[in-house]
Amino acid sequence: MNSPKRQTRSHLISLFQEQGLHPRGDLGQNFLIDLNLLELIVQEARLGPDDVVLEVGAGTGGLTTYLSAAAAVVSVEYDSNMYALASQAVADRPNVTLLHTDALKSKSQIAPVVIEAVQRELAVDPKRRLKLVANLPYHIATPLIANLIASDLPWELMVVTIQWELAERMLAKPRTGEYSALSVYLQAQCHLKTIRKLGPSVFWPPPTVDSAIVRIDPKPEASSKIVNRGAFQSFLRDIFTQRRKLLRGVVVNLFKPRLSKQQVDTVLASMNFPQDTRAEELSVDQLVELSNRLQRCLSDETLPVNNI
User: What is the residue extent of each domain of the chain?
Assistant: First the structure.
């Protein structure tokens, strides 16, 4: 197996000129050219022979070759030109499965062909672990991360390069402008950490915004406390579309006619929320518990009275 090619800015410019190609901005084709950062991503992923790496956005195969030096890789590339270049870069690497497809079937589902390829690699050995390691195209980052968390795939770690603004939303706290349904959904189930903020100059072509390398680890003990993850995700999406409205009115309208106003009031009173409470003011734990109590109420179970 050959050593990974050093895909510097000059190398990529020459490669694209030879092929008569241009990076596609509509597909988020901004290639990471700082070799130290590529090594940092691999280091943070803590890869070993029992790992299966899912990479989305293979591009020219620069990061793919680094990943495949340490683990089995399932890499996905949508663009035909990039798929051809990545195929050449990994031609001597039998531990790389390169898929020419969209990683998502829809905004709410990972493509079945991707799931099947990952499952095949995991089935090789029961000790194998799944990690998402990728320089993610900006437009696919949010749905891909959220759908992987929502899936039944046994993921153990994510180390991803994403837009800085998205990283801020992921780690946002209550009562801030960035606090959102995504913030709560991720923090309720994961540990999140920003590894490095990246300026545009470490990419070619440079994007117009800053980026970040983010590490995401699962919190199974916290995730197990969510009564219904699908309902929780929908609940967050619905109440945060009206984040500044009074919580009682939002919840009453959201659960009409499944729950009466009296039932909603009972749930809110059991959590000692002030009458002027708004969704954007509640902590992650409070929103998990509120969703759980509403779900139990829908199931005609006895409502818990313990406060968070």
Answer: 9-222, 229-298
